[in-house]
Design brief:
By secondary structure, this protein is α/β, with parallel strands linked by helices. The protein has a single domain, classed as NAD(P)-binding Rossmann-like Domain (Rossmann fold). Helix content is 43%, strand content 15%. The protein contains nine helices and nine strands. The strands form two sheets. Strands 3-2-1-4-5-6-9 form a seven-stranded parallel beta sheet, sandwiched between helices. A two-stranded parallel sheet has the order 7-8. β4, α4 and β5 form a beta-alpha-beta unit. The longest helix has 33 residues. The radius of gyration is 18 Å and the shape is globular.
Length: 266
């Protein structure tokens, strides 16, 4: 039996606005800023959250425009990951853009972490940050392929994937995996008009890390960049918005460093 022929490559007229966008981990911080940037652009956004429903509801309520939605699910659970992608597609009547932002970052310095805790945290980081991202990407890509309108997937990686994170090694390793996943998908999905790119931010000022910036290590963190500061969420969100634009097709497969020259790789 001969294999079925591959479909013809898709060359879609990808829209500037009015797109259907799913942002994972958008209840607060960078995810909230990304959701707001797309909504301000005239897009319709599905805000995903894991546990912080009140914060996610506040995010949706604060988005400009209309036609937004709220979806929930644990990225570590493959069934839930697929279901909330379908819920987002149902609420928005499709998916044009996926932003993989959700991740966990729990300290586990190797010299001070008991083995049982170490092992459990590695499994949890891998399940959420890497496998969860892969599963959500697969589900969204299947939607985009069926729609035959092309699409955009933007992954939020990390500077730590390149320079290392001594107190968060599983986070750094899984973010390196996210970068590699994005590059593999960029090649595999190009014929369907789907681009895949990643951002690799350095330190970002969010509510979650505000205590570190105001505490004793704040000056040291800011000094990592020659600009003497850390990034705002809006700066990273602007880059994500551009990578999801029609003009950014040729950036597919790229990993964009956004760290204020705090770490330069060759």
């Amino acid at each position: 039996m001969e294999p079925e022929p591959e479909p013809e490559p898709v060359v879609p007229d990808f829209p500037e606005s009015g797109r259907r966008v799913l942002v994972t981990g958008a209840a607060r911080g960078l995810g909230r800023a990304v959701a707001h940037a797309f909504a301000a652009n005239g897009d319709h956004v599905a805000v995903h959250y894991g546990a912080s429903r009140d914060k996610a509801e506040a995010t949706v309520a604060g988005l400009p425009g209309t036609g937004h939605a709220l979806v929930s699910g644990d990225l570590a659970d493959p069934e839930q990951a697929a279901l909330f992608v379908e819920a987002a597609a149902g609420a928005l009547s499709g998916i044009d853009v996926l932003v993989n932002n959700a991740a966990i970052m729990i300290p586990h310095p190797p010299a001070a972490t008991p083995f049982a805790e170490w092992s459990a945290l590695w499994q949890r980081h891998a399940a959420v940050n890497l496998v969860g991202t892969a599963n959500v990407s697969h589900a969204a890509a299947q939607r985009m392929i069926a729609q035959r309108t092309g699409g955009r997937i933007v992954n939020v990686g990390s500077r730590g994937a390149f320079r290392g994170e001594p107190d968060h090694p599983a986070y750094a390793a899984t973010k390196a995996g996210v970068h590699a996943l994005g590059q593999s998908l960029a090649v595999a999905l190009a014929r369907y008009g789907i681009t895949v790119a990643s951002v690799a931010p350095g330190f970002i000022e969010t509510d979650r890390v505000a205590h570190r910036l105001t505490g004793p290590e704040g000056e040291e963190i800011r000094a990592q960049s020659p600009f003497g500061r850390v990034a705002g969420t809006d700066e990273i969100a602007a880059a994500v918005l551009w990578l999801a634009s029609p003009q950014a097709q040729w950036s597919s497969g790229a990993v964009l460093d956004l760290n204020g020259a705090s770490y330069l790789r060759t």
